[in-house]
Amino acid sequence: MSEIRLEKLTKRFGDFTAIEKMDLQVRNGEFLALLGPSGCGKSTTMNIIAGMESPSEGTVYFGDRDVTRVPMGKRGVGFVFQNYAIFTHMTVRQNLEYGLRMHGLPAAQRKRKVDEIAGFLELSPLLDKPTAGLSVNILQRIAIGRSAVLEPAIFLLDEPLSNVDAAFRSVMRYELKQLQRRFRQTMVYVTHDQLEAMTMADRIAVMDQGVLQQVGTPLEVYNNPANIFVANFIGSPGMNLLKGALTSRDGRPAIAFEELDQTIELPDELARLAEKRNSAAVLYGFRPEEIELTSQNGLSMKADFLERIGARTILHLEASGREVKAVFDNNVAVQLDSMVSFRPASGSERLFDAQTGARIG
Ligand code: ATP
Predict the structure, then answer these.
(1) pTM of the complete model
(2) Residues 97-125: pLDDT tens digits?
(3) What are the ABC transporter domain coordinates in residue numbering (predicted)?
């Protein structure tokens, strides 16, 4: 019942296509993050799942039930928006139990459920306080609690943490995850923040310009991005991508970077896949976190800039207008303006077709 299936979902606003033929399955009890940049169609997708908007084409299923034309109130979904909507003339408890009252639940059961949710969301000490004057952080917590207390089988959250402050956001990430573990709802969570998606979701659906790019676990989309959009969008910083051409060096497969006037050896497996695809022009991808400093078989670029961020250092390397970012811990000893030799850790290199952007291997 609480599996969600979107089939060939398309949404047009006049001439503009906001979602294009989207197929997506959200499994029963799964926490799925819908991730993508602003304007990519995340909220429109959510609104269609919730029943606030109807698709131009395509079908929405909850389990085997076609709910495409079922109005929002009859879908039995919980929905939390970016902007909390709570009743300011009521206490915290009255807000939390509002929906339960509407459903005619007896007082003892209301109290039990509200107390449990308040415990999860650390609202217990505030239950009898008026909501007027509470911080934005707390108000959003109440909004989440008010939906969660109804234990909807499908729980939709559209950027619920974008208005709360950074420290609170990380606490809330943990609490939401705990909440979902306890109630095992099917949760769809819209965010443009890849860190939020990576830390919370069982699987991530990455969207760009109305088109679903990839669905996978956080590790799958990080390690094996389907294309250069996902490679760049996931990770902070995103994957390095250098344009090159297949060649050979001392009888071994390699990539030549014309702009850099350098080559690097390519693992046999990747070379075979590239040859099969007949991709002459490729993008050589490697994660900033998987770079080793080495004087052998590497690339050489100038250390341009060091960004020290807490326990990490991001080293910006530059050559012929091309930039590579490398992430190290703070012990890295690199002189600014010196030449740095490096290569991706063995097995971490990825190859993409330069024309289509699709991953080759
Ligand atoms: P954001 O994070 O900024 O909300 P999003 O990924 O959720 O972005 P949507 O809100 O789904 O994106 O919007 C997708 C595209 O559809 C945007 O270009 C938006 O301008 C357009 N759009 C959304 N609603 C309407 C509407 N009612 N009429 C016309 N265009 C719309």
Answers:
(1) 0.93
(2) 999 999 999 999 999 999 999 998 999 99
(3) 4-234
Nearest CA to ligand 1 atom 24: 44
If one counts every other C-beta atom within 10 angstroms of the C-beta of residue 199, the result is 14
Max distance between CA atoms of the chain, in angstroms, equals 80
Q: How many other CB atoms are there within 10 angstroms of residue 228's CB atom? A: 22
Cα–Cα distance for residue pair 234/236, rounded to 1 Å = 7
* CA Rg value for the chain: 24
The partner residues of 10 in beta bridges, in order of sequence, read: 57
- Which residues have any ligand 1 atom within 6 Å of their CB? 13, 16, 18, 36, 38-44, 192
Q: Is 295 within the bounds of a domain?
A: no
Q: Whose CA is nearest to atom 9 of ligand 1?
A: 41
Answer whether residue 100 is part of any domain: yes
CB contact at 8 A, 100 and 110: yes
Instruction: Report how many domains make up the chain.
Output: 3
The Å distance, Cα 44 to ligand 1 centre, comes to 6
Count of Cβ atoms closer than 10 Å to residue 107 Cβ: 10
pLDDT tens track for 40-83: 999 999 999 999 999 999 999 999 999 999 999 899 899 988 77
Helices (H), 201-256: 218-223, 228-233
Are residue 124 and residue 54 in the same domain, yes or no? Answer: yes
Question: How many CA atoms lie less than 13 Å away from 357 in the CB half-sphere?
Answer: 9
Residues 360 and 308 in one domain: no
CATH number of the domain residue 260 falls in: 2.40.50.100
| Whether 95 contacts 131, CB under 8 Å | yes
Q: Which residue's structure tokens are 């089988």?
A: 153
Q: Are 86 and 131 in contact (CB under 8 A)?
A: yes
Give 23's contacts (C-beta < 8 A, 6+ positions apart).
Answer: 6, 7, 8, 9, 212
